[in-house]
Amino acid sequence: MADEQKNEGVGEEPLQMVGDGAEPDTQIAAEGTGAVAEDQETAPDAAAADAARIDRAQAEAEAALHEMGTEGDDPAAAMPPGGSDAPAPGPESDSAADRAHVEAYLDDDETDSGVDLVVVIVVLLVVLGCLVGSLVMAMNAPKPSSSQAQTKAEQEAIAAAEAQAEEDKIPVVELPEGVAAVVNGQEIPEQQVTDYIMDFRNANGLEDEQAWGKWVVSFGYNMDTLREAAINYYVTQALLDQAAEQLNVTVTEEDIDRTYQEARDGFETEEEWLAALEMSGLTEESYREQCANIALQNLIAEASAADALNNEEIDADVLEYVKSYNQDYAEATSLDEVPADVVAEAREAVEYYATQEAFSAFMTNLQDTSTIEMSKIPSDVPYNVFLLPFYFSMMMEQAQADNANGVASGADPQAEAQAQ
Fold it and tell me: In Å, what is the CA distance from 130 to each residue of 133, 392, 393, 419?
């Protein structure tokens, strides 16, 4: 061990010279100062001085390790790989203390990176939570009228409409797979509802998911209410079929032709008529199918209003109509005092309103006494899209538009609110 301590810090050349049996007077000092012993008597003193300098160097090295935080560590752990036979530290190899310092730095850096990642994730979650919270608040916030203030009558009307809509909602129950709804035992296939929605989507150029999601949100739908609206179409159709059976009503080709021609007569040219169909996403064939439904409704309405039209009170209603809309006969006491053409025009209007009222009452009663059930929306229907980004986008666009309108008008929203 003493030999190792003495050799530490001595250059390779002096060690080689001693090992080869060189004369003591040619030995180079350990510190490389170039001093040469002049005689044999001074050699022990020089060796003692060298040993002292080596001890001081070792002490300084240990003190350096202590300052760098290696105090109490296993000395072997601070040694270069290979133990005491490894090359001494130099320009080409880092010291154990340097390596310990680097390893500690790397460990700290890895720990800091992990902490940074956690912080980033937490911040993202907080931001997302804020966005979702803002969106929910915006969706649940009351929608002001165009005047930014609602009268009591408007509030009552909105409340009544919301209550009626809630009452008219179709109850959701478990139904056989592939069945969207059941109306008095008559099944409405899920595929039929899906085809209806997809046909509408394609006919209106909404194949792109972005365009489709924006349309759904802008018209106040979500996926459940959109599907329910399509189901309601087929529910109405099923109720009409059942009403026709109850009233013994049958639609003929003549009824369809007459309904089609009445609509066609509203346009002067064929080009205008075809353009109107195209704008509605219809063809002549698809519109004729709609005419069958329209004709069926008209026949059911006429049948359900038969009693009302034959009522003797109809003449009294016609006279009141004439007196209300034609001041020339405001003082008339009977229809005999009114020209026939005026009476005919008034009777047509009164009978139309009576028919519509009777039809509405009949269908409302039929629906109220019917059993209508709907299944839960399947998750794999092709029209189903995630709407949260579109709600958020609409909210941001509305906020920007409101802000732009406020800046353009120079109005103070707070002052307006206080004034109202």
Answer: 5, 12, 15, 32
Tell me which residue has tokens 């059993």: 371
Distance between CA atoms of 100 and 89, rounded to whole angstroms?
Answer: 14
What CA–CA distance (Å, rounded) separates 365 from 371?
Answer: 12
Residues 294, 305: Cα–Cα separation, whole Å: 16
Which residues are CB-neighbours of 149 under 8 A, at least 6 positions away?
420
* Ordered alpha helix ranges (H), 169-222: 190-203, 209-218
Please choose, from the candidates 240, 343, 341, the residue with its C-alpha nearest in 3D space to the C-alpha of residue 299. 240
| Beta bridge pairs of residue 355 | none
Distance CA(359)–CA(234), nearest Å, equals 18
| Max Cα-Cα span within the chain | 162
Q: Which helix (H) or strand (E) holds 311?
A: none
Size of the chain in residues: 420
CA–CA dist 30, 221 (Å, integer): 91
Torsion sign across C-alpha atoms 405, 406, 410, 416: positive
CATH of domain 174-385: 1.10.4030.10
Task: Return the SS3 of 267.
Answer: coil
Amino acid of residue 222? N
Annotated domain spans of the chain: 2-67, 174-385, 392-420
Each residue's pLDDT tens digit, 64-101: 545 544 444 443 333 333 333 434 444 444 455 555 55
Residue range 330-366, pLDDT digits in tens: 888 888 899 999 999 999 999 899 899 999 999 999 9
* Phi, psi dihedral angles at 188 (to 5 degrees): -115, 110
User: In terms of C-beta density within 10 A (0-12 exposed, 13-18 middle, 19 or more buried), how is residue 158 classed?
Assistant: middle
**What is the rounded CA–CA span in Å between residue 265 and residue 263?**
5
Distance (Å, whole) CA 44 – CA 33: 17
Residue 327 backbone phi and psi in degrees, to 5? -65, -20
Mean pLDDT estimate for the chain? 74
DSSP character for 305? T
